[in-house]
Amino acid sequence: AAGEPAAALARLGSFDRACADDTAFRQAPEAAGHVAAAQRFARRGELTRAECEYSRAAALLPHVAALADAARACSLKRAESRELADRLHSALAGEHWAEVLRHAERLIELCPDHLIARQARSRAWSAVGMHLMDESTNTYTGPSPTPPKPPAVAWRPMDRFLLWVDGVGGYLVCGRAEVTIGQPVPESQVDIPVLGDLSRRHAKLRRDGEVYLIDPRRPVRLDGRSIDRATALADGTTIELGNVKLRFRRPHPLSATARLEFVSRHRMQPSADAVLLLAESCVLGPGTQSHVVCGDWSQELILYRQGDDLLCRRSGRFQVDGQGVVDGSPLTLKSQVSGEDFSLSIESLVGRAS
Fold first, then answer.
1. pLDDT digit string (tens) for 103-113?
2. What does the longest C-alpha to C-alpha distance in the chain come to?
3. Whole-model pTM?
């Protein structure tokens, strides 16, 4: 069981002080550190790393059988987790929401903080709601899920900010579910101000669950076709607003966050390379499915919302505002985040000259 290694180490701590010179006693704190790391990794579904940490602890304390047992348990759990993850991705691709819920719930039982499983479960809830549980063809046999809480009404501290990623670029991040695109004139107060031949409030973009809609106020074309009403956007759609061309991207299958890229040679004010329409989480990393592709990074960093707060998560140790953190930390609108192979900063738009 997950608690057995910790219990074994706790017993070591009760040894008589006369044993202070004993090698096992002196190595117990280091072993305890490996156990704590293993438990964090296991909860997140990083079972290879968890097994490695348990094995390191077992090497330090070979007489504590529970540590070797925990390493073997991680190996077995890893095989089941990998199979469940494969099934989960297949179910997501086919939009088989009952299967998504079943596989996600099982993954969360194995690894309570498994981010992909939690995002998949939320996506299934958003897509089908609780009526799925009443369908005669439903094959979901897991525990009845509780509908997710609605997002906070106002996320004012993070409505808009700039994200600067060293060696990659700058991004205007919009946190509201509805944003306007238009010219950057003072009285218009648009969310995405573009220097180009377009109206002050040319169009609205609205996120409705997993779907993004564009509502034209002035002429808008999608992939060359004119629209006159709110229309859903698909990944890869080219949006034409006057002479401004943007591409809409939804790169990550488990995140509702989207990206707007410039196709034409226009720019925003304040200047940024692209727009991130932030839903619950945003992935920065070397993978092609990242919202911000950082080719030289060794692993992903995830920005995510929790209530009215913005947080980040990345495996291992890194720095936030000059302080060392492990795995994750809250952020502010002036945070600087860095590690061995990456650096980024957040800048508030409040009081900033365009």
1. 888 888 888 88
2. 83
3. 0.60
